[in-house]
Each structure stands twice: as C-alpha cells, then as structure tokens.
Amino acid sequence: MHFSCICLAFFPLVAYGYNVHLYDDAFWDGRVHRVVSDECEDIPMKMKDEISSLNTHGTCIFIYKKRGCSGDWAVIAPGTYGHSNLKDISFDDIVRSIGPCKDLS
Q: So which domain of life are we looking at (predicted)?
C-alpha cells in the first residue's frame, strides 16, 4: 500500500479524468461552465473568448489555444501558476479546448 502511494507521486501526468469549472472572469468570478471528462473537449461556443480563470478541483489538465486539443498549450496542475487569472500565463480569453494530463516522457 505504501509503495503504490510513492508511485503515484512520481508519475503525476498519467491520463485520468478531470472535473473543471471554467469562469468568464478572473479570480473564479462570473458565469461558470463545468466540464467532466477523460478526453479532449472543445470549449462550448457560448464561452468562446471568455475563459479567464478555472478550478481543476485538484486534477491536472492541458489547456489549448485551438479546438481539438491542438496548438499552443499549457499544463494546469495542482500547485501550478495561473488558475486564478489565465492572463498571467497568456491564456486569457483564448482557451479553445481542454484535455487530461498525459505522460510527457
């Protein structure tokens, strides 16, 4: 049991499902849209050009500047910078799709 916990700590980017709230204002304010998935999801058209912060509820996701999980991307994982204000990582109002974290090795 103790060994499995150590393995999880060393492999944090293995693909898992995610639960994300997307907000149209910085600091988790404004309209919100929830996405629960284990694969790539395009941002709903009603939120296009509006996502400014997000809450991953402790999960890890990739955010992308193009639909279909393509284009420039950033990792949003527990403890990383940018959750409260995507402007800080140059992704304010331009997130087009999100997907689960995956093994980068």
A: Eukaryota
CATH code of 40's domain: 2.60.20.10
pLDDT per position as a tens digit, 61-103: 999 999 999 999 999 998 888 899 999 999 999 999 999 987 5
> CB count, 10 Å around CB of 50?
19
**Total domain count for the chain?**
1
DSSP line for 31-82 = EEEEEEESS-EEPPGGGTTT--EEE-TT--EEEEEETTTEEEEEEE-TT-TT
Q: What is the pTM of this model?
A: 0.79
Residue pair 20/35 in contact by the 8 Å Cβ criterion: yes
Q: Give the span between the Cα atoms of 74 and 76, in whole angstroms.
A: 6
